[in-house]
Amino acid sequence: MKRQILLWAGFVLAMVAAATPALAEGNANFVLGGRWLDEDDWEPVEEQGVFGVTVDFGKESWPIHLAAGFMASAKDEDEGPFDINGSVSELSFGVLKLWDEGNVHPYVGGGLAAVTAEVEIEGPGGDVSADASSGAIYAQGGVFWRIGRRFNIGGDVRVLFGSDLEDDGFETDADYFQLGLLLGWGWPATR
C-alpha cells in the first residue's frame, strides 16, 4: 500500500512538472485533515487522517482549470487482541472553477476518481485482509488566500460517492466526507 501511494504521488508530481511550463496558471495544493467513512462498514477505523495533493492548471483564457490529485487516508486501531488497519487511497481527475477576488480564491470542482480500500486485521488466530478498487465521483470546494507572491493557505471540503467495493463476498464502499487544511503554492507569482 505504501509503495502504491508513493508511485501515485510521483505520477501526480511528474504531471505537474510536465504541464507547468506550457500553461499560464495553476496551483499545487496539499491537504492535511480528516476523513469520515460509513460507520456501519468501517468501525472502528471510520475516522481516518488524510494527506493529499491536488494540482489545477489551465490557460488564462479558460473558464475552468483541469485538476488532478492523489489522496490517501489510514487509521490503525487496537480492539482487544486485534490490530485493525483501514486505508483508502484515491487518484482523481476532473475540473476546477476558481474565482479571483484579489488574494481570495474560492473554488468548486469535481470529477472521476479511482479508489482502492484495504482492511487488515491481525490477531492471535492469524491475519485477515481484504482490498478492492472501484470507480467513483468526487466533488470539492473551498477557499484559499494567496499570501505573499505564491503561497496558498485555506480550507478544503471534499466528498466521494458512488464507490462499490467487493472482495470475496465482502461488500462495502469507500464513500466519505473530508475536511482539510490547504497549503500550497500558485503560479504565476502575484505582483
Helix-strand string: HEHEEEEEEEEE
- Our measurement of the CA-to-CA distance between the termini, rounded to an integer number of angstroms, reads 42 Å
- Rg, rounded, reads 18 Å
**How much beta, percentage-wise?**
over 45%
Structural class: mainly beta
| Annotated CATH topology | Porin
Number of discrete domains: 1
Kindly report the average pLDDT value. Answer: 88
Largest sheet: 8 strands, antiparallel, barrel
Helix content: 10-25%
Number of strands: 10
Task: Give the helix tally.
Answer: 2
Q: Judging by the overall fold, what is the CATH architecture?
A: Beta Barrel
Could you give the order of strands across the largest sheet?
Answer: 1-2-3-4-5-6-7-10
Extract low-pLDDT stretches. Answer: none
Output the CATH class name: Mainly Beta
The geometry reads as elongated
Write a structural description.
It is a single chain. The protein is mainly β. The protein has a single domain (2-187), classed as Porin. It has two helices and ten strands. The chain has helices at 2-19, 39-42; strands at 25-37, 47-58, 65-79, 82-98, 104-123, 126-147, 151-161, 165-167, 170-172, 176-187. It has an eight-stranded antiparallel β-barrel.
